[in-house]
């Protein structure tokens, strides 16, 4: 059985603004420092796939007005998801 993960996030000013990292326990992963929430979503999707929790993942930001979408990282975009999906059934 193959597993896929699709994460949709609405693109708003709040999710495209860079944010800091704070942790009360341990030290936070520096890759998240200064990243937007859209960036963090894509990083999480990469890690879900790369760590083997899912076989494929797709990170997608969707916009209401005008209607559209964006893919924050090429490593978890539609083309990669499609390629991984095709490979799962070959």
Structure at a glance:
The protein is of the alpha+beta class and 90 residues long.
Labels describing this entry:
alpha+beta; 28% helix; 20% strand
What would you note in describing this structure?
By secondary structure, this protein is of the alpha+beta class. The protein has 2 helices and 3 strands. The chain has helices at 37-50, 78-88, and strands at residues 4-10, 56-63, 68-70. A hairpin with a 4-residue loop joins strand 2 (56-63) and strand 3. The protein starts with a strand and ends with a helix. The relative contact order is 0.24.
Secondary structure elements and their pairing?
Layout (H helix, E strand, L loop, with lengths): L3 E7 L26 H14 L5 E8 L4 E3 L7 H11 L2
Total number of beta strands: 3
Q: Which regions contain 5 or more consecutive residues with pLDDT less than 50? A: none
What does the main sheet amount to?
Answer: 3 strands, mixed
Helix fraction bin: 25-40%
Residues in β-strands, percent? 15-25%
Globally, the shape reads flat
Structural class: alpha+beta
Largest sheet, spatial ordering of strands: 1-2-3
Radius of gyration: 14 Å
The number of helices is 2
Distance between the termini: 13 Å
Average pLDDT value? Answer: 94
The sequence of SSEs as H and E is: EHEEH
